[in-house]
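Journal club prep, notes for RB
We'll compare a predicted complex against what the paper describes. Inputs for the D-[(amino)carbonyl]phenylalanine case:
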Amino acid sequence: MPRPLVIAAAQLGPIQRAHARPEVVSRLVSLLQGAHAMGAQLVVFPELCLTTFFPRWFIEDRAELDAFYERRMPGPDTQRLFDEARRLSVGFCLGYAELCEDEEGGTVHRYNTSILVDTSGRIVSKYRKVHLPGHAEHEPWRRFQHLEKRYFEPGPGWTAVRAFGGVVGMAICNDRRWPEAYRVLGLQGVELVLIGYNTPVHNPPAPEHDRLGDFHNHLVMQAGAYQNGTYVVGVAKAGEEEGCEMIGGSCIIAPTGELVAQCVTRDDEIAVARCDLDLCTSYKRSVFDFAKHRQPHAYRMIVERTGAILPPSSPSDPTEPSA
Ligand code: ING
Protein backbone atom coordinates (compact mmCIF):
# COMPACT_ATOMS: atom_id res chain seq x y z
CA MET A 1 0.00 0.00 0.00
CA PRO A 2 1.29 3.52 -0.75
CA ARG A 3 3.52 5.27 1.76
CA PRO A 4 3.27 8.95 0.77
CA LEU A 5 5.76 11.42 2.24
CA VAL A 6 5.71 15.08 1.23
CA ILE A 7 9.31 16.28 1.03
CA ALA A 8 10.69 19.79 0.51
CA ALA A 9 14.10 20.69 -0.86
CA ALA A 10 14.81 23.98 0.95
CA GLN A 11 17.54 25.58 -1.11
CA LEU A 12 19.51 28.47 0.39
CA GLY A 13 20.93 31.38 -1.54
CA PRO A 14 24.34 32.68 -0.49
CA ILE A 15 25.36 33.22 3.15
CA GLN A 16 27.96 35.98 3.30
CA ARG A 17 30.64 35.99 5.97
CA ALA A 18 28.94 38.95 7.70
CA HIS A 19 25.61 37.09 7.97
CA ALA A 20 25.32 36.18 11.64
CA ARG A 21 23.66 32.91 12.67
CA PRO A 22 20.43 34.54 13.93
CA GLU A 23 19.64 36.00 10.53
CA VAL A 24 20.55 32.74 8.81
CA VAL A 25 18.32 30.78 11.19
CA SER A 26 15.50 33.23 10.42
CA ARG A 27 15.86 32.26 6.75
CA LEU A 28 15.77 28.57 7.69
CA VAL A 29 12.66 29.09 9.84
CA SER A 30 10.98 30.99 7.03
CA LEU A 31 11.78 28.22 4.52
CA LEU A 32 10.51 25.61 6.99
CA GLN A 33 7.25 27.53 7.46
CA GLY A 34 6.85 27.97 3.70
CA ALA A 35 7.46 24.28 3.09
CA HIS A 36 4.96 23.36 5.82
CA ALA A 37 2.39 25.62 4.15
CA MET A 38 2.98 23.59 0.98
CA GLY A 39 2.26 20.37 2.89
CA ALA A 40 5.84 19.26 3.58
CA GLN A 41 6.42 16.72 6.37
CA LEU A 42 10.22 16.66 5.90
CA VAL A 43 12.37 19.68 4.94
CA VAL A 44 15.92 19.16 3.65
CA PHE A 45 18.45 21.99 4.12
CA PRO A 46 21.92 22.27 2.49
CA GLU A 47 25.39 21.27 3.72
CA LEU A 48 27.03 23.72 6.20
CA CYS A 49 23.86 25.80 6.13
CA LEU A 50 24.52 27.98 9.21
CA THR A 51 27.50 29.90 7.86
CA THR A 52 29.26 30.87 4.69
CA PHE A 53 31.36 28.08 3.11
CA PHE A 54 34.50 28.86 5.15
CA PRO A 55 36.78 26.15 3.62
CA ARG A 56 37.23 28.61 0.74
CA TRP A 57 39.71 30.49 2.97
CA PHE A 58 43.04 29.54 4.58
CA ILE A 59 42.30 30.56 8.20
CA GLU A 60 45.28 30.41 10.57
CA ASP A 61 43.72 31.89 13.68
CA ARG A 62 42.18 28.95 15.62
CA ALA A 63 39.53 31.06 17.35
CA GLU A 64 38.48 32.60 14.03
CA LEU A 65 38.18 29.13 12.50
CA ASP A 66 36.36 27.59 15.48
CA ALA A 67 33.71 30.33 15.27
CA PHE A 68 32.34 28.55 12.19
CA TYR A 69 31.62 25.33 14.14
CA GLU A 70 28.73 24.32 16.41
CA ARG A 71 29.64 22.84 19.80
CA ARG A 72 26.02 22.00 20.66
CA MET A 73 23.07 21.00 18.48
CA PRO A 74 20.57 22.42 19.05
CA GLY A 75 22.56 25.38 20.31
CA PRO A 76 21.47 28.85 21.40
CA ASP A 77 21.02 30.03 17.79
CA THR A 78 19.39 26.89 16.39
CA GLN A 79 16.99 26.04 19.24
CA ARG A 80 14.23 28.13 17.70
CA LEU A 81 14.44 26.17 14.44
CA PHE A 82 13.94 22.95 16.43
CA ASP A 83 11.08 24.55 18.38
CA GLU A 84 9.26 25.79 15.27
CA ALA A 85 9.70 22.45 13.51
CA ARG A 86 8.25 20.64 16.51
CA ARG A 87 5.39 23.13 16.74
CA LEU A 88 4.55 22.51 13.07
CA SER A 89 5.28 18.77 13.39
CA VAL A 90 7.77 18.89 10.53
CA GLY A 91 11.00 16.91 10.38
CA PHE A 92 14.18 18.32 8.86
CA CYS A 93 17.71 17.54 7.74
CA LEU A 94 20.40 20.13 8.58
CA GLY A 95 24.05 20.37 7.61
CA TYR A 96 26.58 22.13 9.87
CA ALA A 97 30.22 22.18 10.98
CA GLU A 98 30.49 20.09 14.18
CA LEU A 99 33.18 20.55 16.86
CA CYS A 100 33.15 17.87 19.56
CA GLU A 101 35.42 16.45 22.24
CA ASP A 102 35.76 12.70 22.75
CA GLU A 103 34.36 11.17 25.98
CA GLU A 104 37.69 11.36 27.84
CA GLY A 105 37.48 15.11 27.15
CA GLY A 106 40.84 14.95 25.47
CA THR A 107 40.95 15.33 21.71
CA VAL A 108 38.82 17.79 19.78
CA HIS A 109 37.26 16.50 16.57
CA ARG A 110 35.84 18.52 13.68
CA TYR A 111 33.34 17.06 11.20
CA ASN A 112 31.23 18.19 8.27
CA THR A 113 27.98 16.89 9.75
CA SER A 114 24.34 16.36 8.84
CA ILE A 115 21.49 15.47 11.22
CA LEU A 116 18.01 14.09 10.69
CA VAL A 117 15.39 15.47 13.08
CA ASP A 118 11.97 13.81 13.38
CA THR A 119 8.59 15.57 13.70
CA SER A 120 8.93 15.64 17.49
CA GLY A 121 12.21 17.58 17.28
CA ARG A 122 14.41 14.61 18.18
CA ILE A 123 17.74 13.99 16.40
CA VAL A 124 17.28 10.46 15.05
CA SER A 125 20.42 10.19 12.94
CA LYS A 126 23.80 11.92 12.57
CA TYR A 127 26.13 11.55 9.59
CA ARG A 128 29.71 12.81 9.24
CA LYS A 129 30.95 13.40 5.71
CA VAL A 130 33.27 10.67 4.41
CA HIS A 131 34.49 12.09 1.08
CA LEU A 132 36.28 15.36 1.94
CA PRO A 133 37.31 17.00 -1.34
CA GLY A 134 39.95 19.63 -1.91
CA HIS A 135 43.31 19.86 -0.13
CA ALA A 136 44.88 20.20 3.34
CA GLU A 137 47.54 22.88 2.77
CA HIS A 138 47.31 26.48 1.59
CA GLU A 139 47.44 26.61 -2.21
CA PRO A 140 47.63 30.32 -3.08
CA TRP A 141 47.56 29.58 -6.82
CA ARG A 142 43.82 28.88 -6.52
CA ARG A 143 41.23 31.64 -7.06
CA PHE A 144 39.79 30.32 -3.78
CA GLN A 145 40.76 27.47 -1.43
CA HIS A 146 38.85 24.25 -0.79
CA LEU A 147 40.31 23.20 2.57
CA GLU A 148 37.83 20.53 3.73
CA LYS A 149 40.71 18.05 4.17
CA ARG A 150 42.25 20.56 6.61
CA TYR A 151 39.14 21.61 8.54
CA PHE A 152 37.32 18.27 8.90
CA GLU A 153 38.00 14.61 9.68
CA PRO A 154 36.27 11.94 7.59
CA GLY A 155 33.39 10.16 9.24
CA PRO A 156 33.03 6.38 9.77
CA GLY A 157 30.44 5.73 7.04
CA TRP A 158 26.76 5.62 6.18
CA THR A 159 24.01 4.21 8.45
CA ALA A 160 20.39 4.15 7.34
CA VAL A 161 17.62 4.52 9.93
CA ARG A 162 13.90 3.82 9.97
CA ALA A 163 12.14 7.20 9.95
CA PHE A 164 9.24 8.98 8.25
CA GLY A 165 7.64 5.63 7.42
CA GLY A 166 10.65 4.39 5.44
CA VAL A 167 14.40 3.79 5.46
CA VAL A 168 16.39 7.05 5.37
CA GLY A 169 20.08 7.78 4.86
CA MET A 170 22.24 10.87 4.51
CA ALA A 171 25.27 11.84 2.48
CA ILE A 172 27.00 15.21 2.05
CA CYS A 173 28.05 17.03 -1.10
CA ASN A 174 31.13 15.31 -2.58
CA ASP A 175 29.78 11.94 -1.31
CA ARG A 176 27.09 12.20 -4.05
CA ARG A 177 29.80 11.78 -6.72
CA TRP A 178 30.90 8.37 -5.39
CA PRO A 179 28.69 5.34 -6.16
CA GLU A 180 29.99 3.62 -3.00
CA ALA A 181 28.03 6.08 -0.83
CA TYR A 182 24.68 5.13 -2.38
CA ARG A 183 25.48 1.40 -2.48
CA VAL A 184 26.43 1.20 1.22
CA LEU A 185 23.03 2.78 1.95
CA GLY A 186 21.37 0.63 -0.73
CA LEU A 187 22.66 -2.47 1.06
CA GLN A 188 20.67 -1.26 4.07
CA GLY A 189 17.48 -0.99 1.99
CA VAL A 190 17.51 2.81 1.81
CA GLU A 191 14.46 4.46 0.22
CA LEU A 192 15.40 8.12 0.71
CA VAL A 193 18.91 9.64 0.60
CA LEU A 194 19.22 13.26 1.76
CA ILE A 195 22.21 15.21 0.41
CA GLY A 196 23.09 18.84 1.07
CA TYR A 197 25.81 20.47 -1.03
CA ASN A 198 27.90 23.61 -1.57
CA THR A 199 29.38 23.30 -5.06
CA PRO A 200 31.42 26.10 -6.63
CA VAL A 201 30.89 26.53 -10.36
CA HIS A 202 34.67 26.78 -10.81
CA ASN A 203 36.97 23.93 -9.82
CA PRO A 204 40.53 25.33 -9.92
CA PRO A 205 42.31 22.02 -10.68
CA ALA A 206 39.98 21.31 -13.64
CA PRO A 207 38.47 24.50 -15.11
CA GLU A 208 37.47 22.57 -18.22
CA HIS A 209 34.82 20.85 -16.08
CA ASP A 210 33.18 24.15 -15.05
CA ARG A 211 30.68 24.19 -17.95
CA LEU A 212 29.40 20.75 -16.78
CA GLY A 213 28.78 21.49 -13.09
CA ASP A 214 24.98 21.41 -13.27
CA PHE A 215 24.97 18.36 -15.56
CA HIS A 216 27.33 16.39 -13.28
CA ASN A 217 25.26 17.40 -10.26
CA HIS A 218 22.07 15.74 -11.54
CA LEU A 219 23.90 12.90 -13.37
CA VAL A 220 25.39 11.45 -10.19
CA MET A 221 22.26 11.78 -8.06
CA GLN A 222 19.96 10.37 -10.74
CA ALA A 223 22.32 7.41 -11.19
CA GLY A 224 22.52 6.85 -7.43
CA ALA A 225 18.74 6.92 -7.15
CA TYR A 226 18.02 4.49 -9.99
CA GLN A 227 20.88 2.05 -9.23
CA ASN A 228 19.75 1.66 -5.61
CA GLY A 229 15.98 1.97 -6.01
CA THR A 230 15.80 5.03 -3.77
CA TYR A 231 14.62 8.62 -3.73
CA VAL A 232 17.43 11.18 -3.60
CA VAL A 233 16.98 14.77 -2.43
CA GLY A 234 19.84 17.11 -3.31
CA VAL A 235 19.80 20.61 -1.79
CA ALA A 236 22.20 23.45 -2.62
CA LYS A 237 23.53 26.42 -0.83
CA ALA A 238 23.71 28.44 -4.08
CA GLY A 239 24.63 31.80 -5.57
CA GLU A 240 27.56 34.12 -5.10
CA GLU A 241 29.13 33.79 -1.65
CA GLU A 242 32.09 36.13 -1.02
CA GLY A 243 32.82 36.29 -4.72
CA CYS A 244 32.51 32.53 -5.29
CA GLU A 245 29.59 31.46 -7.52
CA MET A 246 27.95 28.18 -6.44
CA ILE A 247 25.55 26.02 -8.47
CA GLY A 248 21.91 25.56 -7.56
CA GLY A 249 19.95 22.71 -9.10
CA SER A 250 18.33 21.49 -5.87
CA CYS A 251 16.03 18.62 -6.76
CA ILE A 252 13.98 15.64 -5.70
CA ILE A 253 14.68 12.47 -7.69
CA ALA A 254 12.51 9.34 -7.77
CA PRO A 255 13.84 5.76 -7.81
CA THR A 256 12.97 5.83 -11.51
CA GLY A 257 15.94 8.20 -11.84
CA GLU A 258 13.66 11.05 -12.96
CA LEU A 259 13.52 14.50 -11.39
CA VAL A 260 10.13 15.05 -9.76
CA ALA A 261 10.84 18.60 -8.52
CA GLN A 262 13.63 21.13 -8.81
CA CYS A 263 14.62 24.68 -7.91
CA VAL A 264 15.24 27.15 -10.75
CA THR A 265 16.99 30.03 -8.99
CA ARG A 266 20.20 30.45 -6.99
CA ASP A 267 18.33 31.99 -4.04
CA ASP A 268 16.27 30.75 -1.10
CA GLU A 269 13.71 28.54 -2.86
CA ILE A 270 11.47 25.58 -2.01
CA ALA A 271 10.74 22.62 -4.29
CA VAL A 272 8.16 20.12 -2.99
CA ALA A 273 7.09 16.66 -4.10
CA ARG A 274 4.71 14.06 -2.71
CA CYS A 275 6.90 10.94 -2.76
CA ASP A 276 5.41 7.45 -2.51
CA LEU A 277 8.19 5.45 -0.85
CA ASP A 278 6.59 2.28 -2.20
CA LEU A 279 7.81 3.32 -5.66
CA CYS A 280 11.22 1.96 -4.54
CA THR A 281 9.91 -1.56 -4.18
CA SER A 282 9.59 -2.55 -7.84
CA TYR A 283 13.28 -1.66 -8.41
CA LYS A 284 14.47 -3.45 -5.24
CA ARG A 285 12.43 -6.52 -6.23
CA SER A 286 13.50 -6.70 -9.89
CA VAL A 287 16.47 -5.20 -11.67
CA PHE A 288 18.20 -4.21 -8.37
CA ASP A 289 17.28 -7.19 -6.24
CA PHE A 290 20.74 -7.19 -4.60
CA ALA A 291 20.37 -10.61 -2.94
CA LYS A 292 19.47 -12.22 -6.23
CA HIS A 293 21.86 -10.48 -8.61
CA ARG A 294 24.95 -9.07 -6.91
CA GLN A 295 28.28 -10.94 -7.20
CA PRO A 296 30.51 -9.76 -4.31
CA HIS A 297 33.29 -12.21 -5.22
CA ALA A 298 33.92 -10.02 -8.28
CA TYR A 299 33.91 -6.72 -6.33
CA ARG A 300 36.82 -7.35 -3.93
CA MET A 301 39.04 -4.77 -5.64
CA ILE A 302 36.58 -2.01 -4.72
CA VAL A 303 37.46 -2.39 -1.03
CA GLU A 304 41.04 -3.60 -1.25
CA ARG A 305 42.36 -0.90 -3.61
CA THR A 306 42.34 2.88 -3.02
CA GLY A 307 43.99 4.20 -6.18
CA ALA A 308 43.93 2.63 -9.64
CA ILE A 309 46.75 0.18 -10.55
CA LEU A 310 47.27 -0.07 -14.30
CA PRO A 311 47.73 -3.42 -16.08
CA PRO A 312 51.37 -4.17 -16.97
CA SER A 313 52.56 -2.49 -20.19
CA SER A 314 52.95 -4.90 -23.09
CA PRO A 315 55.29 -4.82 -26.11
CA SER A 316 52.27 -4.60 -28.41
CA ASP A 317 51.02 -1.46 -26.61
CA PRO A 318 53.94 0.61 -25.21
CA THR A 319 51.76 3.70 -24.53
CA GLU A 320 51.83 4.95 -20.93
CA PRO A 321 48.26 6.07 -19.88
CA SER A 322 48.10 8.34 -16.79
CA ALA A 323 46.30 6.59 -13.91
N1 ING B 1 31.97 20.60 -2.87
C1 ING B 1 32.20 20.14 -4.18
C2 ING B 1 31.38 18.93 -4.59
O1 ING B 1 31.80 17.79 -4.59
C3 ING B 1 33.71 20.05 -6.02
C4 ING B 1 33.65 19.94 -4.51
C5 ING B 1 33.52 21.30 -6.62
C6 ING B 1 33.82 18.91 -6.77
C7 ING B 1 33.55 21.40 -8.02
C8 ING B 1 33.86 18.98 -8.16
C9 ING B 1 33.71 20.22 -8.79
O2 ING B 1 30.25 19.18 -5.00
C10 ING B 1 31.91 19.95 -1.69
N2 ING B 1 31.65 20.72 -0.61
O3 ING B 1 32.11 18.76 -1.58
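Talking point for the session: The chain has a mean pLDDT of 97.
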